[in-house]
Amino acid sequence: MAKPRIGVYPGTFDPITNGHLDIIQRATRVVDKLIIAVAINVGKGPLFSLDERVALVRDDVAAMKTNHGAVIEVRPFDNLLMHFAMECGARVIIRGLRAVSDFEYEFQMAGMNSRINPEVETVFLMASERCQFISSRFVKEIGLLGGDISSFVSPRVRERLQERWDSIRSTAAES
After folding, report:
1. Would you call 151 a catalytic residue per the annotation?
2. Does a structural domain hold residue 165?
3. Are 8 and 41 in contact (CB under 8 A)?
4. How many domains does the chain have?
5. How many CA atoms does the CB half-sphere of 122 hold within 13 Å?
6. 3 assigned to active site
7. Considering the domain boundaries, does residue 118 fall inside one?
């Protein structure tokens, strides 16, 4: 019996978008078990805490319909991706590409990861046409400025973003 193919899809997911969900759905066709690795990444100054991001990803993934039989797990991580992959027994890193501009960074990262652990392959999945322009950064900016983000994130994420922005605005008004 063949060992299950385990993949890791890492990211900050601040917040998880429909673009991320598209990659997750499609990655389940490539692996038997997909671990969505939510990075602590304080350098990006996330809007949500690590625990909040893990919960949002778990909520959105629980609502997904996968027809491919893959198991999906969501875990936080705060170490080197290759070390995390080894801890999980993963042999595949899943990375989504939206545009050519993503490729250079991802290509360099895949090369570095390969030097750290040549047993782990990086698989690039191109974003679906309807998701190519979606980024967490744009979602946050559009939503904060009052734009409609309902086609970019799930209703639950939209609600949590609105709650966060309301909290920020009320704190700023009190100052």
Report:
1. no
2. no
3. no
4. 1
5. 22
6. no
7. yes
Task: Categorise residue 15: left if φ over 0, alpha if ψ from -120 to 50, beta otherwise.
Answer: beta
> Which one from 53, 91, 136, 154 is the annotated catalytic residue?
136
Decide if 65 is inside a domain: yes
How many Cβ atoms from other residues are within 10 Å of residue 53's Cβ? 25
Is residue 44 annotated as part of the catalytic site, yes or no? yes
Residue 90: CATH number of its domain: 3.40.50.620
Active site residue 20: yes
Residue 104 CB burial class (10 angstroms; 0-12, 13-18, ≥19): exposed
Annotated catalytic residue, options 26, 33, 98, 156: 98
Mean pLDDT by 10 residues, the chain (175 residues): 91 95 94 96 83 96 79 95 96 89 86 94 91 88 91 95 87 75
Q: Say what the pTM is.
A: 0.92
Domain ranges, residue 83: 6-132
The one-letter code for the residue type at 170 is S
Inside any domain, residue 35: yes
| Candidates 44, 68, 83, 130; catalytic one | 44
